[in-house]
Amino acid sequence: MRVIIGIVLAATALASLQPKAASAADCPGRPDALGTARTLVVSAATTPRVGTKQFPDTLPLADKELVLTFDDGPWPTTTPKVLDALKAECVRATFFLVGRNTNANPQLVRREQAEGHSIGHHTYSHPLLPHMSLAKAEADIDRGIARDELALTGVARREPSTPFFRFPGFASNQALLDRMQDRGIVVFGADVWASDWNPMTPEAELQLLLGRIDQVGRGIVLLHDTKAQTAHMLPKLLRELKVRGYSIVHIVPPSGSVTN
Known about the structure:
Elements (H helix, E strand, L loop, with lengths): L1 H16 L20 E4 L7 E2 L14 E7 L7 H10 L5 E4 L1 H6 L1 H9 L3 E4 L12 H20 L10 E2 L8 H9 L3 E3 L3 E2 L8 H15 L2 E6 L3 H16 L3 E6 L8
Helix pairs in contact: 2-8, 7-8
């Protein structure tokens, strides 16, 4: 009996270390909010590369479960609007940061962290890494991680607190992929994207993205918090996802994970 009680207490303690999902019921004054349905722990040990736009496999999501991700920020004129929209619906997302933008806007990175979002990495200067030597490519990756970590923790280190990474332009090669796996860093592609790097109206982007989400039915969604059209479109997207019966999953690393 003591052994059983000990196991239960240990499991309870471990669960308490994981971020609590921001469900609609926990959204002050917004019982109709989209919310965050659950938290999913993602580890390079089990899912080193995810996203069917780039890789054979993706995250283990149920039908109509989505993970929202945003690239290239933080950006002073648009990232706050994206954060406001997510906060209004109690939705948690993942931001893949460009280090030079973090360097210019560290307060926005700290706000992302304070509001419960996960922080991933997207290099320092957003180059196409396969066009560089392995050493230079990894140096840009590490420089980006260091700037992000400085904003988050006060220490400019190359070991990310959240070992999530996305290649700029999804451009990688086998040597870089192997290096990320050796370091215990999950490489994220996507399952559906908004194509918001192309100029379009917010309404056009909304309809394009909803059509693609309905076609895929689940997965990792790629947007950019640097795009004004996306920031303007996001509140309508979140409300429409609620109407269509989609659920948001918040991805986090294993508790206490720091790469070598």
